[in-house]
Amino acid sequence: MRITRRLIGAVAAGLALAVVAGCGAGAPAAPDGTAPVDVNFGFIPDFNGTSLLAIAEDQGLWEKHGVNVTTTSFTNGPLQIQALGTGDLDFGYIGPGAIWLPASGQAKIVAVNTLGRADRVVAQPGIGSIADLRGRTVAVPEGTSGDMILTLALQKAGMAKADVQLVAMEPAAIITALSSKQVDAAGIWYPALATVKQRVPDLVELATNQDFEETVAFPTAFVAGNDVVAGEPEKVERVLKVLREAIASRAANPAQAVQLTADFSALDPAQVQADAANVQVLSLDELDRLTRDGTINKWFAGLGDYFVGAGKLQAPVDPAQYYTGDLFLQASE
What is the pTM of this model? Predict the structure, then answer.
């Protein structure tokens, strides 16, 4: 099996690639005897974005289903959507803040992953409320769940982004800016926040996902390029079979999932465990049921309403146009 890992980071000149792991022999043929398929798969190196890939690698699921996989690390979901559009990726991972991109037709959601609870609006010591952010400098990675929770928190406080001095930053830059007190607040998530709190232990949390769960769900998801879904059904089916088996394993063996995630991305297991504590893991049976009964479509519809209000979408979009739940269920056969 070929498992190549790459790292992508946003730099001033564009996207820089660095190979961080080599490749072995090609994957065997699929169970039906057909030739293996090559798949480029994006991920974010945290529990949500990595755990299924780590399990698939450990358990030989790519080999089992005849897939040669190249995994590439990204800092956020929107960059992966761009890579899907250019054909540099076949599949990727996004958080709830990037759901508007497939909803706007730029990709397809092929599987729901987890419900995220890791997002926060945080502020420097002495800032006690969202209202106190008026006129202050607030950093956020645009188009992410950090952007989303900041927008929701401002709306709840009767404010808008125009009421703060918004600065767009990548997560790594936000860690530095918060730690050095260059910004007053940020919309960001764990595990990045764990690093900040080591440097600013009295950092104030002003808003969390749980503050909005009654009206907005925060699903994380796996996405595929439009051309891949339309023109390569065999590839989609094989990848979904891998993801389904990994989903079942993660739910049954949570401690193992944490360790494998740490090993996959060379992270401290304690850091990954703290990250996983902010995640609601869904079992395969739950995901199947929630797909069949329309609950997941309701989650996406609710997000669509939010994105319309936030100016990301011009009008609500039927989730059936971008969530291929039927393919996810068919992959069980």
Answer: 0.82
- Region class of 294: left (phi > 0), else alpha (psi between -120 and 50), else beta: left
- Residue 241: count other Cβ atoms within 10 Å of its Cβ: 21
In order along the chain (333 residues), what is the average pLDDT of each group of 10 residues? 48 33 50 86 96 98 98 95 98 95 98 94 97 98 91 95 96 95 95 89 95 89 98 98 98 98 95 92 98 97 92 95 98 91
| Beta bridge pairs of residue 67 | 37
Cα separation, 265 vs 21, whole angstroms: 11
Q: Which residues is 222 bridged to in the sheet?
A: 93, 111
pLDDT at 11: 31
Q: Cα dist. 184→122, 128, 150, 180 in Å? A: 9, 12, 13, 10
Which pair of tokens denotes residue 272? 């990954």
Q: What's residue 15's pLDDT? A: 36
187: β partners:
121
Report the distance separating Cα 28 and Cα 222, nearest Å. 25
Contact assessment for residue 200 and residue 179, using Cβ atoms and an 8 Å cutoff = yes
- Report the distance separating Cα 192 and Cα 274, nearest Å: 11
- Residue 262 CB neighbours (<10 A): 21
Count CB-CB contacts under 10 A for residue 312. 21
Name beta bridge partners: 94: 221
Q: Which residues contact 17 (CB under 8 A, 6 or more apart)?
A: 6, 7, 8
CA-CA distance, 111 to 327, in Å (whole number)? Answer: 9
Peptide bond into 191 cis (omega under 30): yes
In whole angstroms, what separates CA 24 from the centre of its chain? 28
